[in-house]
Specification:
By secondary structure, this protein is mainly α. The chain has seven helices and no strands. α2 crosses α5, α3 packs antiparallel against α4 and α4 runs antiparallel to α5.
C-alpha cells in the first residue's frame, strides 16, 4: 500500500497500526482470549481496513484527475466513499452478531473480535486517516498527492478482452463444482458414523 499510494499509503499504515493497537487493547481490557478464530477476526478486520483505505484513495485519485486541489480531493474522496464504507462494515457487523448469537464458543470469539475490530476500523479509517491528512495539509507537508500510475497505465495501454474466455471459466467452474459435490457425497457415504 505504501508503494502504490506513496504518502497516502504511509497514512493508511499509520491508521492500520493504530487500529491494531486499539483492537488488541480492547480485547485485553475485556479479557477476551485470542483463539485462532479470534485471530482470524483480527486479520479480517485489518483486511477490511485496507479495503476502506483503498476505496477512499481511489475516490481521491478520481477527484485529482478532475483537477481538484489535494484538500478538495481529500474532502470529496472521503464523502463519496462514506456510504459504501458504512454499508460494508454494517453488513459485516450484522453477520458477526448473528455468528455470536447462534454459534459455538469458537464462532463467538470470531464474532466478538470482528465486531469490535470493525467498529475500531470505521474510526481509524474514516476519522484518523482524514485527521492525518488535515494535519499534513495544515503543516504544509502535503503539497500534492501522487499515486503510482504505472499499473494503471499498463492496464489501460492495451485492451484486455476478459469476456472472450468466459466460457472456459464457466466450464471450469461447473466441473469443479460437480467434482466438489461428488467428493462431498462420496465422503458422506463412506463415513462410518
Amino acid at each position: 500500500i505504501v508503494l502504490y499510494y506513496k504518502g497516502a499509503g504511509v497514512n493508511a499504515v499509520l491508521a492500520l497500526l493504530l487500529n491494531l493497537v486499539i483492537l488488541l487493547g480492547m480485547l485485553a481490557y475485556f479479557k477476551a482470549s485470542l483463539t485462532l478464530p479470534g485471530i482470524a477476526g483480527v486479520i479480517l478486520t485489518l483486511g477490511m481496513a485496507v479495503d476502506t483505505n483503498v476505496l477512499v484513495f481511489e475516490r481521491i485519485r478520481e477527484e485529482l484527475r478532475e483537477g481538484k486541489t489535494p484538500r478538495a480531493a481529500i474532502e470529496q474522496g472521503f464523502s463519496r466513499a462514506f456510504a459504501t464504507i458504512i454499508d460494508t462494515h454494517l453488513s459485516s457487523i450484522f453477520t458477526a452478531i448473528v455468528l455470536y448469537a447462534v454459534g459455538n464458543d469458537q464462532l463467538k470469539g470470531f464474532g466478538v473480535s470482528l465486531t469490535v475490530g470493525l467498529i475500531i476500523s470505521l474510526f481509524t479509517s474514516l476519522y484518523m486517516t482524514r485527521t492525518i491528512f488535515e494535519i499534513w495539509l495544515a503543516k504544509g507537508w502535503l503539497k500534492d498527492l501522487n499515486f503510482f500510475e504505472g499499473l494503471v497505465k499498463l492496464i489501460h495501454a492495451r485492451y484486455w478482452d476478459f469476456m472472450s474466455i468466459r466460457y472456459y471459466w464457466f466450464t471450469a467452474t461447473v466441473i469443479l463444482t460437480l467434482l466438489g459435490a461428488g467428493l462431498f457425497i462420496y465422503r458422506a457415504d463412506s463415513d462410518p458414523a
